[in-house]
């Protein structure tokens, strides 16, 4: 049975433009399409929902004829979206394709763009700007720690998952992003939107500090409702940027604190060597970190983490795959705030040392903590990332029928009605991960003597239902 699955996957890859796509199931059998949310040079974004449960998602629809000579760029964007793992970065939930189109399934952000929020209000209050900026910087720090440079940060690419000041910030659109081979590598392509473009990008020799210039421009715009550099043409704007002179005097700036102005002056700096990094910017006095939440987390979350030790390798890998496809509306309550409270380095990862301190306070001994942290760190990076943290909470609770069905669908990519061992390898590739031989062996142990295939009813029992 396994060899049939492998042959099927080869033929699927031959037909596919993208290695992460699911071609076996027509996308319109899974989702019902609604209104158009926006568009760009490659395609449009539509609101949609799963037919079975009405979960809203945003679907980027890209005609293949428009990207047939730029597939490498699209593959790079997808690879980057599968690499990042942070509460303030948009998630790619799935990729479908048919003969004519590619469909990127993303989290739906109903709160709209930061650009719309600025233009509708005229400007953003300093307290609100502070919350937005800190979340942006944490996401940028996560990107830069992974050697990823966004290269097109602007208010149109900052969304909110819901309306109101409590909406969570989400950085989107990684179409121009790049991943550096090493920290000293420089980029040379003149990309991005001119008003937010750093002077070194215009010159054509730059690194990840270009994102920090853009962050400074965004902050300036939030607090004043204006752009620091402007002109009647792109050439004039470029000259103003390269000159680097801007004003924060008089008018609205009389009501902005000195700490906010100092941060802007440390970000909109011509020399990238003296410009703040994201990690440095987060520590600036303006943010007043003394008011940040402590590392105390909900007792229910602690209990779920403790229970994770009892799960099998089969269950852990299944839930980690499920989490990558699950809309945020289904996440465990308080998971985001608990994760960020434990992320003391603002990198989008929880260090094992920090995790150990918390669990020691909740009556686990060092041996139990080592066992638990190693189990959660399923990708063996030495830290606990956001998806792993969510997966541990899911595995530590009883999964309802809907979640078990979703998990089965994530593995039964060809819609066979059963899963085989090789389906785990294929499903892992779809989320940007290749199982090691050891991981595959541990999963395979759970198949036992059931003819190398697992039906849905058997799967339910194996997931503890």
TrEMBL record:
Limits of the Protein kinase domain: 31-287
Family, per entry: Belongs to the protein kinase superfamily. Ser/Thr protein kinase family. CDPK subfamily.
Record protein name field: Calcium-dependent protein kinase
InterPro entries: CDPK_Ser/Thr_kinases, EF-hand-dom_pair, EF_hand_dom, Kinase-like_dom_sf, Prot_kinase_dom, Protein_kinase_ATP_BS
Subunit structure: Monomer.
UniProt binding sites for ATP: 60
Entry cofactors: Mg(2+)
Species per Swiss-Prot/TrEMBL record: Blepharisma stoltei
Keywords linked to the UniProt accession: ATP-binding, Kinase, Nucleotide-binding, Serine/threonine-protein kinase, Transferase
Keyword Cell membrane: no
Entry annotated with the keyword DNA repair: no
Molecular functions (GO terms): ATP binding; calcium ion binding; protein serine/threonine kinase activity
Boundaries of every EF-hand domain copy: 330-365, 399-434
Pfam families linked: Pkinase
Database matches in CDD domains: EFh, STKc_CAMK
């Amino acid at each position: 049975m396994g060899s049939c699955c492998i042959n099927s996957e080869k033929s699927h890859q031959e037909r596919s433009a993208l290695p992460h796509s699911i071609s076996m199931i027509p996308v319109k059998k899974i989702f019902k399409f609604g209104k158009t949310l926006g568009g760009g040079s490659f395609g449009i974004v539509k609101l949609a929902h799963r037919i079975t449960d009405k979960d809203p998602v945003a679907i980027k629809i890209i005609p293949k004829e428009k990207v047939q000579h730029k597939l490498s760029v699209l593959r790079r964007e997808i690879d980057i979206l599968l690499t990042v793992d942070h509460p303030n970065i948009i998630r790619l939930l799935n990729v479908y394709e048919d003969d004519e189109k590619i469909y990127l399934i993303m989290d739906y952000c109903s709160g709209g763009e930061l650009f719309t929020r600025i233009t509708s209000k005229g400007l953003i209050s300093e307290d609100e700007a502070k919350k937005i900026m800190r979340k942006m910087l944490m996401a940028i720090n996560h990107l830069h720690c992974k050697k990823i440079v966004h290269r097109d940060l602007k208010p149109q690419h900052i969304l909110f998952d819901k309306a109101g000041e409590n909406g969570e910030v989400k950085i989107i659109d990684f179409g121009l992003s790049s991943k550096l081979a090493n920290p000293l590598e420089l980029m040379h392509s003149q990309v991005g939107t001119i008003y937010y473009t750093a002077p070194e990008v215009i010159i054509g020799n730059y690194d990840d500090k270009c994102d920090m210039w853009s962050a400074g421009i965004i902050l300036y715009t939030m607090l004043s409702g204006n752009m620091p550099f402007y002109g009647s043409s792109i050439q004039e704007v470029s000259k103003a940027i390269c000159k680097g002179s801007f004003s924060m005097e008089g008018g609205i700036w009389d009501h902005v604190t000195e700490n906010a102005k100092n941060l802007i002056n440390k970000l909109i700096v011509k020399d990238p060597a003296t410009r703040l990094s994201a990690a440095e910017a987060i520590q600036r006095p303006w943010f007043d970190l003394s008011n940040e939440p402590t590392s105390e987390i909900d007792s229910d979350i602690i209990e779920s983490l403790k229970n994770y030790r009892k799960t099998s390798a089969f269950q852990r890998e299944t839930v980690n795959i499920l989490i990558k496809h699950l809309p945020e509306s289904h996440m465990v309550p308080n998971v985001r705030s608990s994760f960020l409270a434990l992320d003391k380095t603002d990198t989008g990862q929880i260090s094992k040392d920090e995790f150990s301190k918390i669990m020691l306070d909740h009556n686990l001994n060092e041996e139990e903590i080592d066992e638990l942290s190693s189990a959660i760190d399923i990708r063996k990076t030495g830290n606990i990332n956001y998806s792993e943290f969510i997966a541990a909470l899911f595995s530590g609770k009883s999964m309802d029928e809907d979640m078990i069905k979703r998990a089965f669908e994530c593995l039964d990519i060809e819609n066979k009605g059963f899963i085989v061992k090789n389906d785990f390898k294929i499903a892992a590739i779809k989320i940007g991960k290749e199982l090691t031989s050891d991981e595959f062996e541990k999963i395979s142990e759970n198949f036992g003597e059931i003819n190398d295939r697992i039906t849905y009813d058997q799967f339910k029992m194996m997931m503890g239902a």
